[in-house]
Design brief:
Two copies of one chain form a homodimer.
Chain A: E1 6-10, H1 15-27, E2 32-35, H2 43-48, E3 57-60, E4 63-66, H3 68-78, H4 90-106, H5 108-116, H6 120-146, H7 159-165, H8 168-178, H9 189-200, H10 211-228
Parallel strand pairs in A: 1-2
Antiparallel strand pairs in A: 1-3, 3-4
Chain lengths: ~230, ~230
Amino acid sequence: MAKDELKLLGGWFSPYALRVQIALNLKGVDYEVIEETLNPKSELLLKSNPVHKKIPVLLHADKPICESGIIVEYIDEVWTHAPSILPQNAYDRANARFWVAYIDDKWLPPMINILIAEDDEAKKPHFEIVEEAAGRLEEVLKKSSSEGKAFFGGDTIGFIDIGFGSFLSWTRVIEKINGRKLLDETKHPSLVQWAETFAAHPAVNGFLPEIDKLIEFSKILKLKLAAAK
Amino acid sequence: MAKDELKLLGGWFSPYALRVQIALNLKGVDYEVIEETLNPKSELLLKSNPVHKKIPVLLHADKPICESGIIVEYIDEVWTHAPSILPQNAYDRANARFWVAYIDDKWLPPMINILIAEDDEAKKPHFEIVEEAAGRLEEVLKKSSSEGKAFFGGDTIGFIDIGFGSFLSWTRVIEKINGRKLLDETKHPSLVQWAETFAAHPAVNGFLPEIDKLIEFSKILKLKLAAAK
């Protein structure tokens, strides 16, 4: 493998793999995507991430880096040219890490719980978690917008934008399946505007998975998750 | 508050607050600890960490930083003098972050589940998680030991050492309550040796909570967690 050769073990359906792609796109470095399926997992994946056996894994000159947030930080630290993904200032960097951890905790897990819940009653507490999170993220973004910035991170896509933006397609899926907005124009005007700007960015545009294809995939995932419960 | 004044909202029982203390001790910077109790939470804590309402919070010239791993990285980034807590090399840094995330996931949560489990049958799957984790961490440390290094991070305490070492006292508590070793001299000789070296380090010695006091505390915690279930 060449010195800087990059291979991403990803999956078109994976928001976590998407984070890595967006970070690599932002940095303008070449990479190859190796598509994994939910089952079976490839030998290369099992060998590269023996602990968790999960995508995404970034192979940089054959050395594996695992976990999306860690990979995005790695990319930012290795390709130090602009745009910076994490803020330069240590306090702002801590803040960005805080919100990505929050998003990891409060956005996809309740969406998955909504997906596998059997009825509206079972969905309710998970919708409440997402609703609270949307409210908090709207506040964070509004503060950034009030300073004239289009993104969470400033004038360009940063760590929080990637962290939250990677969940946008799955957000649309949950909205469409349930006939209910998670990001709402009245309650979350900044987030709704941001989502449009984010999706149109050259590092993102064309990389977000198709909603209808994801909905079909979600049916398989739901069965798989229900069986594993 | 003075420009560099540091206040740690902590609790003597909290392994996460201990991480921050060890990091500050390593850097040799002065700080004040403000002891929080489980209940009620102080106004200062609620104001400083309104999202999670949890310790630890580091107040650096009044600005709050939350979440132990994020705080430790912040400390390393602000006080850049030796010793470095995270490795200098980006790949090693990704690796350190990976193992701390692993420890956060696979060590304290199963120990808490063991604490609140009602009988041996209920404890079993959680002991298995801890056992697998101990095996994996022994392998990681053995690799470092084979290169003549005393710690996970090298010759001095690093990010993984702090991440895992902060759980040592609680590990002893679970061992003592259950009459069963989690870190075993035969299976985990490197970890057992490391635990001694870690506990004797000047940045750690005198900061680990007393086991018997923690056992008394664990009884209150158990009731509280059982009630919240």
